[in-house]
Write a sequence for this structure.
């Protein structure tokens, strides 16, 4: 038994063509493979909050992806579905929990209402007839003579019937591919922001998480560093130094960059730690050892 189809904000997904089609205007918007799978997943669980891990597992299965892949796909869907990223009427961000598709914007579609995917008739035609062009009389006469001498009128009619729909289809395909490229390009280069975490918790340390602007605030990963950060903060106080930390995380990789400053010197280090979630003791020891090493490398301030 086939699952009932649903449109979202009047946009109907069409898996075969890799696009969404507007039920009223017939406009076609191309989506990437995983963006379309994400939309189908949200439709199937409309009204339910799905965590980032659940969505990543359902959509990308066991593939290794970047830490912004889900956020970028959500942003691209909101753009395609005419949803406002700030108001979030259709796809809502539930802080620290995940994402939810509002059932109010998910309308069941009867089989007889189905829209033919990517057919020329389903969208405003790009070109349905040849554009008349004025040509010199002598050239027009030569053209007619050549046609009569090489092909019967019925064959010319067949050629015209075949040629112009082909041109229309080609131009339509180019338009769809360009639209898909635009959405993917816009999503991929979404603005990144530095979001400060655990404000005012450490006297000599400031911590920033690097994430896409559309991501919700999330300080769950920083919990893994808290024990060692307290120790480092005491060392910084003893040396009259300050530290700033920037980090990005995904399931497999931690990008951890820090800088240490005193009134007369500074040191910094960028680290990429793989499989960092597996052994928290080893993680904290690595961070502590590298921080202590850089702290010891600071040039001592000359006393006046």
């Amino acid at each position: 038994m086939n699952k009932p189809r649903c449109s979202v904000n009047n946009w109907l997904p069409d898996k075969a063509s890799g696009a969404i089609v507007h039920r009223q205007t017939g406009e076609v918007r191309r989506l990437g493979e995983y963006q379309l799978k994400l939309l189908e997943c949200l439709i199937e669980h409309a009204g339910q909050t799905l965590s980032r891990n659940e969505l990543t597992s359902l959509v990308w299965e066991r593939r290794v992806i970047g830490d912004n892949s889900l956020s970028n796909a959500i942003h691209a869907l909101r753009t395609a579905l005419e949803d406002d990223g700030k108001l979030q009427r259709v796809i809502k961000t539930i802080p620290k929990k995940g994402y939810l598709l509002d059932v109010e914007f998910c309308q069941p579609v009867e089989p007889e209402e189905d829209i033919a995917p990517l057919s020329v008739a389903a969208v405003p035609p790009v070109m349905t007839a040849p554009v008349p062009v004025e040509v010199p009389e002598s050239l027009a006469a030569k053209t007619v003579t050549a046609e009569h001498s090489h092909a019967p009128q019925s064959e010319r009619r067949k050629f015209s019937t075949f040629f112009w729909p082909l041109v229309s289809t080609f131009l339509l395909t180019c338009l769809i591919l360009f639209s898909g490229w635009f959405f993917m390009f816009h999503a991929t280069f979404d603005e990144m922001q530095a979001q400060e975490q655990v404000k005012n918790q450490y006297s000599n340390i400031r911590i920033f998480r690097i994430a896409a602007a559309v991501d919700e605030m999330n300080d769950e990963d920083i919990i893994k560093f808290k024990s060692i950060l307290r120790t480092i903060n005491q060392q910084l106080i003893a040396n009259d130094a300050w530290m700033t930390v920037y980090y990005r995380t995904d399931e497999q990789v931690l990008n951890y960059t820090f800088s240490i400053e005193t009134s007369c010197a500074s040191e910094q280090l960028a680290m990429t730690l793989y499989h960092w979630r597996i052994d928290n003791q080893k993680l904290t020891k690595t961070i502590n050892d590298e921080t202590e090493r850089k702290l010891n490398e600071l040039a001592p301030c000359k006393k006046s």
